UniProtKB/TrEMBL annotation:
Any GO CC annotation of this UniProt entry: cytoplasm
Molecular functions (GO terms): adenine binding; adenine phosphoribosyltransferase activity; AMP binding
Catalytic activity: AMP + diphosphate = 5-phospho-alpha-D-ribose 1-diphosphate + adenine
Compartments, as annotated in UniProt: Cytoplasm
Keywords recorded for this protein, A-Z: Cytoplasm, Glycosyltransferase, Purine salvage, Transferase
InterPro entries: Ade_phspho_trans, PRTase-like, PRTase_dom, UPRTase/APRTase
UniProt protein name: Adenine phosphoribosyltransferase
Top-tier EC class: transferase
Organism: Sphingobium baderi
Quaternary structure note: Homodimer.
Any one Gene Ontology BP term: adenine salvage
Family the UniProt entry places it in: Belongs to the purine/pyrimidine phosphoribosyltransferase family.
Length: 178
């Protein structure tokens, strides 16, 4: 399946979550068995040479891709969650995003100091969430090898911002606009 075929499986929802936004919804791609497999296979080919210790997924759609990618690589999966969702002791980071402020957390000690990690999310727009997750992981002593996304919205500059912050990035698909 080609990248164009994968791109065709992504649904665009106009004016969500607010007027003027073109929401790129990967749930339609995830529901297509061949498309989902191909997306994960594309991602695995890119990151396999990095040989990460852990695959870290950002809530919520990042969990889906990160868990599938961790399985494909034979690695462990760690969730980075929104505040108040994890039952144990947590470490976290507050950050600003295009629609307000938020907080990301992970279980204290779940990412060992020196761990080589791969950061995964479904989409990168402005890069705020990915930058916060990368910073949280670095504060725990992790080495963030790369952040990989199913979709990049290059007009919003998130990948460039993340790379300027020292995190290598990759994306399987790109959509113009926002």
């Amino acid at each position: 399946m080609s990248i164009d075929s994968l791109t065709a499986l992504v649904r665009t929802i106009a004016d969500f979550p607010k007027p003027g936004i073109q929401f790129r919804d990967i749930t339609t791609l995830l529901a297509d068995g061949a498309g989902f497999r191909e997306l994960v296979d594309h991602m695995a080919r890119i990151v396999e040479p990095l040989d990460p210790d852990l695959v870290v997924g950002v809530e919520a759609r990042g969990f889906i891709l990160a868990a599938a990618l961790a399985h494909a690589l034979g690695k462990g999966f760690v969730p980075v969650r929104k505040a108040g969702k994890l039952p144990g002791r947590t470490v976290g980071i507050d950050y600003v995003l295009e629609y307000g402020a938020d907080r990301l957390e992970l279980h204290e000690g779940q990412v060992p100091r020196g761990a080589r990690v791969l950061l995964v999310d479904d989409l990168i727009a402005t890069g705020g969430t990915a930058q916060a997750a990368a910073q949280l992981l670095r504060e725990q002593g992790a080495n963030v090898l790369m952040a990989i996304f199913a979709i990049d919205l290059p007009d919003l500059g998130g990948r460039l911002a993340l790379e300027a912050d020292g995190v290598a990035t990759a994306a399987i698909m790109a959509f113009a606009g926002h």
